[in-house]
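In this supplementary section we document a worked example of the pipeline. Step one takes a protein sequence of length 140 as its only input; no multiple sequence alignment statistics are reported here. Step two produces a three-dimensional model, which step three serialises into structure tokens for compact storage. The input and output of this example are shown verbatim.
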Amino acid sequence: DMAEPIQQLTRNNNPQERQSIPFTLIQRKEKLGDLLYEKRHYGKAKWACIKMKEKQYEQSICLGFMKLMRYICEQNSSGLYLGITVPIVTIVHTNEAQSAMTQAVTVAYYLPEVLQDEPPHPFDSDIIIEEWPATIVYSR
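The serialised model returned by step three reads:
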């Protein structure tokens, strides 16, 4: 089932073709020459997102990622390979009291700059295009 997307990804697996999500570095914290974290500002952008809810959240992440890979590798209204952006983001959800993780996760793919204005529509109705507001992220 994943043979075609994996072949497409392999054909296009040139590190120079991977687009990092643009951000502005606000702060960088190091200790003894090792990076502890970076504080980054990410601008408003469109993401292809899928919410999964399997018995184990690891399964949800894997299945969500595979569905996004199909979208990236031609199962979209453009019929084209969209290109890889890094990182692919996983959001783990918590219960209403924020005291425990739920089984639901969201796996999200940043749409490359050239697709931000008019993202291709996914064939998979579970994938939705969302516009995320600007945010501050701490990254390691």
